[in-house]
């Protein structure tokens, strides 16, 4: 076995979208950069999350839209072609091959070391390659941990023998299960329940709380639940799992017992019950940190509990905003900050400066790809009130907007903007309805740029589009 040593300005652990952005920004800043990856270059988003899940959901949502249009509804009355949907999903994951992503790293002059990377003291990373060789990397300026998260499973006895689905299995499954149990009520749970029900599964959702999408405006979860039930999903609130077993034999069925004594059987069970930081075996103990913990960072993404400021934690691993696009944003910020510090420059670290991740706390956008879609940015009404801001919620029925009525008959949706009455700007915006995901960037600009409500009157929405909701919200606010 070989043992080699290499020196770089920056070492990045984790070649998902976050690590790629850190590496590219650091390299653009003139720093020699290497990235370490133990699985596929491109990470969770490319192969087991964003891309495959949205590829599975798109046919379901397109069919739902088509069914709202007379003259088209009859043409899409039948079931989805499940093999074709799964084959298209496979295309979007590049059939779980990362040649294209590796080619991109080459194009931006970032080196790649495949293997399991672990911190080995300040500015040092030791990589065990698939062949058993050891590569010792030393960073002159910074090491960035971009290892993301893994699925959190409940402490149920014998769960490993059940072979449960997590988000990975749910997005990469090769066949449609006849019956699927989904445990959880958050984004992964509702999206995967939507996708697999549309593909032909009999889906039952088991939700510990009293509603879906608990971190969003209450009406969002209520409207999604109503639509899912109308589509045939059995949603049970206020229940927990007492035990689960896989019975084996020819049927190989799952048997789940709930805390209320009810028993359910299924072919597969998906646990969408949260995420853990992927930091258990990356050598945190060698730099005075606790393995398995989230990594606390400042607004330039530097780990606060490590001396000399050489360690960065970017993306989900710092628990600021567990979203791919937000992690990529952090990656751009961190890479630029690393390069600026290496050049001895003064950082632009004022709020909304080039080297601080201000949007993590002020303007985080998210789309939930269900029918109806949910799109939100900034604070909910409850969050704004808890923050002590004097706010007013302005609501409007999206179905009363001309563009929405043209989008599909019996359009059901709702919009809310939360206005900070003292600052005269928007604290948050939420849209629920078919196609509203494409409205979100305008809301993100309004919230992040702190556009005065009086100025928004002069941003004229085109008629007849769904974006006319902005005019209706502003009219309602003025009264």
Task: Characterise the protein shown here.
Helix content is 31%, strand content 24%. It has 479 residues and is of the alpha/beta class. It has three domains: 3-42 and 98-150 and 277-359, FAD/NAD(P)-binding domain; 159-273, FAD/NAD(P)-binding domain, CATH 3.50.50.60; 372-478, 2-Layer Sandwich (Enolase-like, domain 1). The strands form five sheets. Strands 1, 2, 3, 4, 5, 6 and 16 form a seven-stranded mixed beta sheet that branches. Helix 3 (50-66) packs across helix 8. The longest helix has 19 residues, at 324-342. Keywords: FAD, Flavoprotein, NAD. Residues 364-470 form the Pyridine nucleotide-disulphide oxidoreductase dimerisation domain. InterPro entries: Class-I_Pyr_Nuc-Dis_Oxidored, FAD/NAD-bd_sf, FAD/NAD-binding_dom, FAD/NAD-linked_Rdtase_dimer_sf, Pyr_nuc-diS_OxRdtase, Pyr_nucl-diS_OxRdtase_dimer.
Q: What is the tally of helical segments?
A: 16
Q: What is the H level of CATH, i.e. the homologous superfamily of the largest domain?
A: FAD/NAD(P)-binding domain
Based on secondary structure, the structural category is alpha/beta
Oligomeric state as shown = single chain
Any low-confidence stretches, pLDDT <50, length ≥5?
Answer: none
Overall geometric form: globular
């Amino acid at each position: 076995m070989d043992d080699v040593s290499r020196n770089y300005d920056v070492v990045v652990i984790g070649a998902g979208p976050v690590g790629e952005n850190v590496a590219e920004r650091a390299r653009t800043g003139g720093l020699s950069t290497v990235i370490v990856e133990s699985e596929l270059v491109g990470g969770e988003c490319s192969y087991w999350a964003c891309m495959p899940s949205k590829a599975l959901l798109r046919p379901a949502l397109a069919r739902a839209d088509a069914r709202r249009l007379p003259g088209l509804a009859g043409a899409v009355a039948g079931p989805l072609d499940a093999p074709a949907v799964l084959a298209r999903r496979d295309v979007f994951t590049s059939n779980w091959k990362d040649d294209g992503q590796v080619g991109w790293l080459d194009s931006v002059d970032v080196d790649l070391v495949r293997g399991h990377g672990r911190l080995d003291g300040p500015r040092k990373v030791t990589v065990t390659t698939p062949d058993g060789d050891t590569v010792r990397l030393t960073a002159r300026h910074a090491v960035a941990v971009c290892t993301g998260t893994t699925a959190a499973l409940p402490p149920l006895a014998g769960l490993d023998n059940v072979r449960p689905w997590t988000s990975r299995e749910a997005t990469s499954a090769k066949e449609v299960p006849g019956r699927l149990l989904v445990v959880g009520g958050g984004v992964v749970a509702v999206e995967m329940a939507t996708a697999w029900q549309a593909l032909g599964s009999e889906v039952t959702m088991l939700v510990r709380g009293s509603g879906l999408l608990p971190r969003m405006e209450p009406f969002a979860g209520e409207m999604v639940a109503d639509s899912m039930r109308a589509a045939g999903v059995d949603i049970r609130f206020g229940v927990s799992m007492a035990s689960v077993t896989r019975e084996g034999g020819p049927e190989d069925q799952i048997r789940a017992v709930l805390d209320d004594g009810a028993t359910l059987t299924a072919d597969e069970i998906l646990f969408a019950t949260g995420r853990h930081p992927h930091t258990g075996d990356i050598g945190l103990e060698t730099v005075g940190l606790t393995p398995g913990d989230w990594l606390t960072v400042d607004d330039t993404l530097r780990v606060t509990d490590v001396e000399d400021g050489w360690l960065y934690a970017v993306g989900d691993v710092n628990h600021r905003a567990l979203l791919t696009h937000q992690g990529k944003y952090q990656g751009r910020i961190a890479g630029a900050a690393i390069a600026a510090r290496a050049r001895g420059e003064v950082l632009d670290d004022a709020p909304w400066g080039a080297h601080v991740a201000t949007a993590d706390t002020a303007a985080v956008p998210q789309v939930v790809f269900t029918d109806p879609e949910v799109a939100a940015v900034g604070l909910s009404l409850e969050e704004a009130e808890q923050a002590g801001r004097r706010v007013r919620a302005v609501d409007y029925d999206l179905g009363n907007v001309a563009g929405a009525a043209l989008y599909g008959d019996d359009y059901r949706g709702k919009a809310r903007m939360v206005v900070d009455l003292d600052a005269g700007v928007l604290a948050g915006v939420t849209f629920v309805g078919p196609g509203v995901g494409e409205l979100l960037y305008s809301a993100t600009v309004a919230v992040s740029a702190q556009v005065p409500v009086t100025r928004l009157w002069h941003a004229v929405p085109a008629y007849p589009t769904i974006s006319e909701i902005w005019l209706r919200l502003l009219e309602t606010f003025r009264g």
